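Subgroup meeting minutes
Present: P.N., E.W., G.H.
Scribe: E.W.

1. P.N. recapped why we're keeping a running log of single-chain structure predictions: easier to compare across weeks, and new members can see raw inputs and outputs side by side.
2. G.H. added today's entry (339 aa).
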Amino acid sequence: MAFITVDSVSKEFKVEVKQRGVIGKLRSLVRPHIVTRQAVRHISFSVEEGEIIGYLGPNGAGKSTMIKMLCGIMHPSSGHIQVNGCIPYKERRKFSMTIGVVFGQRSQLWWDLPAIDSLELYKDIYKVSSTSYKRSLNEFNELLDLHEFAHTPVRQLSLGQRMRMELAAAMLHHPQILFLDEPTIGLDIMVKEKIRDFILQWNKQRKTTVILTTHDVIDIERLCNRILIINSGEMAFDGSAKELEQLYTKEKQIIVTFKEAIDWLPPLLHATVQWREGNQICFAVERSEDVQEVIKRIVNSYEVTDIQIRGADLESIIKQVYQTGKRDDVHEVVYSHFS
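Output recorded in log:
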């Protein structure tokens, strides 16, 4: 059985649309105009234990709503969610002991206390033994260098230091699943790498399942073995980064540096010239399987000093998925106080 099962889940919100002017406001009191907005539409997927999933989507796509349902903060309007044998919103107390959560924009640390005091409090909340606590603290110090700022009040920590402490607080009780929302947002390169290495090592050692929402493509490339893309509340893609590239990349580029400039080049089957610059010529090849054949013909006919093969970068591909799946439809229902 899958570690996480999401079966045809939808979530609706009812929002009152305010009307303009005095007459409009009076009319709203008698007959309010209510709009039903579907944040998530019939989403289905499953996750195996130990997977690191990149959960992506543009702003307003329904990512946060889905994460809140997986955490048990919200309940679905329809469909079924099961995580590690629990229905999150029905068994919140039991379920909360098995998950760790880090939201980049919200802190779970006590602002005026030294950072280490927050870990001490979480030790008691999650009933972590002193032996386990000390062992975990040593690991955190080794991987995240917490000792450098552990006794500094949280309000005085830099963003990178606070995020490292947030991770430690979320992982202190060794949760079986970790929800990360933009864990590297606004951080410098060195801190980002430290956090990525920590997530990878913890996942490898303990098979912790990780659900990661991020807009940082390097996070996806370094951490995720699978990508889920949600757009306009619907699932737009489920697969690996390689499968995403194969699905949305229409052509490959072959950039050839010749020993001498080529004045004239006969047409090549399966390849078209995109641009020329000095000794370099860029060829576009539509199918990946034709790349080797095109290179073979060029190398057999000309003296070549360098060959580069490029596909579309992951960021461009994800942007293409976002643009392809845009929807503006909203289901509206009008209700009256007197109905």
